[in-house]
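User: I'm putting together a small comparison set for a docking exercise, and I want a reference complex before I start. The sequence is below, and the ligand is manganese (II) ion. Could you produce the 3D structure with the ligand included, as structure tokens?
Assistant: Of course. I'll restate your input first, then give the structure tokens for the complex.
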Amino acid sequence: MFVVMTRSATEAEILGVKSHILGEGLTPYDHVGAERVVIAVVGEIGGRRPVLLDRLAAMPGVEAVTPISRPFKLTSREFHPEDTIIRVLDAAVGDGSLTVMAGPCSVESRDQLFSTAESVAASGATILRGGAFKPRTSPYSFQGLGVEALRYLAEARERSGLPVITEVMEPSQVDIVAEYADILQIGTRNMQNYSLLRDVGRVARPVMLKRGYGATVEEWLMAAEYIVAAGNPNVILCERGIRTFETYTRNTLDLSAVPLLHHLTHLPVIVDPSHATGKRWLVKPLAVGGVAVGADGVMVEVHPDPESALSDAEQQLDHAGFADLMAALIPIHEHVRGLHSDPLVAGPGLGLDAGPDGPAKH
Ligand code: PEP
Ligand code: MN
């Protein structure tokens, strides 16, 4: 449930509500909005719900107590109506600007990374990507340069001015990746690795959580909830395609997830057309589609010589391909800017729409 405080609630009244919640063995999380404070009550409330609801509603400074049926709380729009904006160095994600994360699938060498960093920065990328620890389907495939790649990424940040994002695959890597990178990426295979989610929830770096390739939107938001509940509110969601019966594409990009997420959550949403399609020539139309449906940005793989790439050779753009993509994305982004506030895009009233099991699925 959420406790909505009055606009004039005092610090003491807010503290009173929080200590009552703590006294019940539950955890209060407060969100200080532009106008008022909302306190989420998190934990196993069970049969205490009606009594607790009445008690909290009667406390001084409380305007309303709303029971909330969604399983995700801190990541929900109800708790935090304003969009979350994530600032990292000179970049901002979720502020209405177009975020473009670009760079190689894997960091393969200093020269390879620096050449791509320089080129994508000149074309308008806002964040540099590059895999250091690579989750590969085969144990015999290139597994990444590890810490050596992290050092190159940090150097590339100094040279290009772009913040860097790279994947962290296991809890033991969290500290070292956080030391070098500006944003930590959780890959699709790890979306439900709960110990990893808790650990990245404890570091002072934004996290980009990719959707599990077999995960529902609700499971994905619950995974984000782990990170936020552990203390890290700066989570970016990345739709990178889900597995369906279709085999022409590597995955199926679920574009409907983008406006759906903007409706359900305040967290920014990025689309990754590279891993979604697995095909270079499909990256541009799907990136354009992602921006058109309101994504806060895209993540795209770029390599100086894609054919020779040590991973994901078929889906990486070359430098000219990336420049061409940027030229297509900028006007689309300008065109759809502001659509988020359109009621058609914003969806029905919060909490009134059917949940995941609502409408018939035929
Ligand atoms: C990646 O972005 O490097 C990656 C491995 O992506 P995913 O986890 O979406 O497969
Ligand atoms: Mn890749």
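The chain has a mean pLDDT of 94. The chain is about 35% helix and 15% strand.
User: Thanks, that's exactly what I needed.
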